[in-house]
Write a structure and sequence with these properties.
Blueprint lengths: L7 H9 L3 H14 L4 H13 L3 H14 L4 H13 L3 H14 L4 H13 L3 H14 L6 H12 L5 H13 L7 H5 L5 H12 L18 E7 L6 H12 L5 E7 L8 H9 L2 E4 L5 H10 L4 E4 L9 H4 L6 E4 L14 E5 L14 E5 L30 E4 L8 H13 L4 E5 L3 H13 L7 E4 L4 H7 L5 E3 L8 H8 L4 E4 L8 H8 L6 E2 L2 H13 L1 H17 L5 H20 L7 E3 L5 E3 L1
Parallel strand pairs: 1-2, 1-4, 2-3, 4-5, 5-6, 6-7, 7-14, 8-9, 8-11, 9-10, 11-12, 12-13
Antiparallel strand pairs: 14-15
Amino acid sequence: MSERPDPFSDALACHRAGRYREAEALLLESLARQPRQPDTWNLMGATLAGLRRYPDAENAYRRALALQPDHLGALNNLAVLLRQTGRAEEARRTYLETLRHEPRHVDAWNNLAALHAARQEYDQALTCYRKVLELQPDYGHALGAAANAMAMLWEWSGRASICQRLADGIRAGASVTVPFVVLSHLDEPELQLAGARAWARRFDAVAMGPLPVWQHDRLRVAYLSADLREHPVGLQIAELIERHDRRQFEWFGVYFGPRVPGDATHRRLRLAFDSFLDIARLSDDEAARRLRALEIDILVDLGGHTLDGRPGLVARRPAPIQVNWLGYPGTSGASWIDYIVADRFLVPPESRSGYSERIVYLPDCFWVSDSQRPAAGRVPERVELGLPAEGFVFCCFSHSYKLNPAMFAVWMRLLRQVAGSVLWLLAAKPDAEERLRREADRCGVDPTRLVFAPRIDLAAHLARHAQADLFLDTLPFNAITTTSVALHAGLPVLSCSGRSFAARGAGSLLQAVGMSALVTGNLSDYEARALELATHPERLASLRRALAERLQTGPLFDAERFRRHLEAAYRAMWTRWQGGEAPADIVVRAAGTATAA
């Protein structure tokens, strides 16, 4: 009888399919036969990393390197692991060691770029991504990552060409970028959907077996997020979780973010949920099985295709109903997400085809706000903030990557037309700020009229909004959380709405607070409205008064009203599931009833 073939190839197939426990068993068998195989130790490390057993994975990689010090796969994988476990400098040195052995190792260049980007070293990241694209122009998501680094740096040379390459790549079905990057570069719902589908397909093969049938007295709803802490998502949903109905529902918080001792928002959320699970150290497979064991009825993914999302977990289909909401402003493109929470303004009929999910249309707004935000602190004098004592203050506290040449050109024309005005922006890296000042100079604007605000705690940030006159929104990626903060502080926000979810988010919030006059449909109207408000102080003052009144009476900061509407949507989803009906668009009415569209 012939000896059974070495199971390495079977282990590799299991690993690629995400069946890590099977792969581990096969690799142990292989190593029992041939313990001095560096390729086997390297694959064992990758398998154990997939199981989130990081110390064991590191040991396996080092065993591979002890046998073959120049094993490029083990060096690169070890560096990835070191970065994942917070040892960024060791990771950097290990990537450089990989490149010393093989200067054309494209994976190492790409991973080194990602490390620099995670450390907000965008100049170094961009240099590495350019090297990746030089070595392999169609490499993975390097084109999108390079575009994102350029956006972070306000490096706009060649932006139009980059956008065209992204669009062409997505249309061709290539995986040229992660979905999040598309939101700030292409305001085309159909392209965003295609890009999201290309990304989501990477996880399609990991679904677990059929869902068993279970019955509960209360509907079990789990919120999945790495951001149940001092983060925009955690800050927005805390009051909602506290107010959720406990008679008909049971609420689970499923967290996989960092340990956050002393974080008041994290502590508040842990207390607000009926049950709180920390799955940070569980593999996607283990976490999915844990949720199945808890018989979760509805899983609400608050991360989606953000950097800290867990698509591999959600793709395993741990719950019969799965929902995309709040954290990712766009379609998932995933067969394993059933619904997206939106509203009629956010997803107009002409954009409906850009979404893979069934739409839940809430009556007011897709956004939830916490009315218990910390009160604004002392309002500092303008001089303390680096602002002129007199003159109109336009502001935009959006992330760097949301700014782009078209918006900046509008803003510079406004500064030229409004004497003594300044543009107040959130601080960036010094080299990026200098680059933007040079751009202002090229536009004929004194660079000193750009003022950069340092990052500070939320209460102080709310307070300094009082020294701004008008918040200027961005397109195609609106300020959404930032719009909520500005409105809460009583600062009018002028938005320009496009076609996609990310391009209509601020408009949705403004509609809900009764400020539709501040929602424009093109940049020409946006510029004209900004100029009108900046040169007619009585009209701006009237808007401020109206905003102050509507904050008290409107739905945007009414968490109790929002709770009723969202729970009605959950009940409608579950009713369809119980009746054996496929997901369908759901319309929730102001009275709290919900029906299929």
